[in-house]
Amino acid sequence: QVRLVESGGGSEQAGGSLRLSCAASGYAYSAYSSACMGWFRQAPGKEREEVATINSAGSTSYADSVRGRFTLAKDNAKLTLYLQMNSLKPEDTAMYYCAADRCPPRTVWNFWGQGTQVTVSS
Which of 19, 66, 96, 107 is the most exposed place for a label (fewest CB within 10 A)? Predict the structure, then answer.
């Protein structure tokens, strides 16, 4: 059973930084290495949106709203996904979710964490 556990959320002022982590368990190393991983977020009253994803080749993709400010990294040896968030803005406030799936991912990704809250104040 694959399990994803996010951590690192919290409250930060605009312009600050946070680093989110997503620790996976129940994954064989080879399966994790070949998995697509991603971060999604959902603000109150809004649809869930894709923030950043990484495929099995290590290629990353970012939403326009975070490109240049957020950096995604995947450590296959530690089965951990990271999201470094710099120059935070109040509009980054949301619940952030880690997700995993085969590559290419399904329309709705297969595995999800419980989420970690990020709150950015102006």
Answer: 107
- 91, 100, 95: which is closest to 115 by C-alpha? 95
Instruction: Note the pLDDT tens digit of each residue in 62-95.
Output: 999 999 999 999 999 999 999 999 999 999 999 9
For residue 38, the one-letter residue type is G
CA distance 122 to 120: 7
CA dihedral angle for residue 52, residue 116, residue 24, residue 37, rounded to 10 degrees: -10
Two tokens, residue 118: 């990020």
As given in the structure block, the two tokens for residue 79 are: 């089965």
Answer yes or no: are the C-beta atoms of 79 and 23 closer than 8 Å: yes
Q: What is the pLDDT of residues 16-74, one digit of tens each?
A: 999 999 999 998 888 999 999 999 999 999 999 999 999 999 999 999 999 999 999 99
Question: What is d(CA 55, CA 34) in angstroms, rounded to the nearest whole number?
Answer: 8
